[in-house]
Amino acid sequence: MIDLEDVPLPIELEGWPSWRDRWDEGLIRRAIAYYWGMVVCNNDQVGRIVESLQANGLFENTLIIFTSDHGEFLGERGCMGKGPLYDSITHMPLVVKPPADVSCCPGEVQGLTETMNIAPTILDYAGVPVPDTMSAHSLRPQIEGVSGDTEAVFCEYVTNDRSRWAKCVRTKTHKYVRWNPDGEHEFYDLVNDPLEQHNLARPGGSIPMVDELEGVLLDWLARTEWRHNYPNS
């Protein structure tokens, strides 16, 4: 059981609704504590899997990848659950334990990754060719320190009623989001505004690099969309 007094309250961001407008302090602390409790439960089950692999002599030769499909607002921006493409949602854990006979970078590897790269990574370590229809790439070179960082990563989002959808490109220093069908833009300087409080693409804002990142996003779409629409080409 998580002690409610140990649960920090959500940060409140300029220009966004406060969690206080929707929930009282006791409820928000319980919601966060329950979420933490589920995380602890997941960790315990992963521990059981590792113990079983070790007991059966399989741990050393097993590739283990631990990640999640999305983050969680937990009261930030007055929201719960997942949603638009802020780092609270798109920044997830990725822990990789390669087979023992593979050299790898010890400790934390700094860089950008995408969840879609997990499938080709597994195929790579299993010695299975990655199909041409996969636009993702294996993370093995990054894991083993053979190649450098990925310059940009991409993600997508659609509202529950499917009335709006977004495409996003993120580098280490900036993020650009394009919404459709209304054409709304978001642009964040992640160095000076890591909490993404100030959308510089709003009228009157400074929008350096927007054209460049729009081009990167368009190039990504051009390189990947055909794989989904024309699998036999």
Can you characterise this structure?
- With 233 residues, the protein is an alpha+beta fold.
- 29% of the residues lie in helices and 14% in strands.
- The chain has helices at residues 25-55, 87-90, 118-125, 140-143, 210-229; strands at residues 64-67, 94-97, 153-158, 165-170, 174-180, 185-189.
- The strands form 2 sheets. Strands 3-4-5-6 form a 4-stranded antiparallel β-sheet, with helices on one face. Strands 1-2 form a two-stranded antiparallel sheet.
- A hairpin with a 6-residue loop joins strand 3 (153-158) and strand 4.
- It starts with 24 loop residues before the first helix and ends with a helix.
Give a quick summary of the entry:
The chain has 233 residues and is α+β, with helices and mostly antiparallel strands.
The fraction of residues in strands falls at: 5-15%
CATH class (first level) name of the domain at 151-233? Alpha Beta
* Overall pLDDT: 88
| Overall body shape | globular
Number of helices: 5
Biggest sheet details = 4 strands, antiparallel
- Parts with pLDDT < 50 across at least 5 consecutive residues: none
Estimated helix fraction: 25-40%
**Helical/strand content category:** alpha+beta
| Largest beta sheet: strand ordering | 3-4-5-6
Distance between the termini: 54 Å
Q: Report the C-alpha radius of gyration, rounded.
A: 20 Å
Q: How many E strands? A: 6
H/E element order: HEHEHHEEEEH
CATH architecture of the domain at 151-233: 2-Layer Sandwich
What is the CATH T-level topology of the domain at 151-233? Arylsulfatase, C-terminal domain
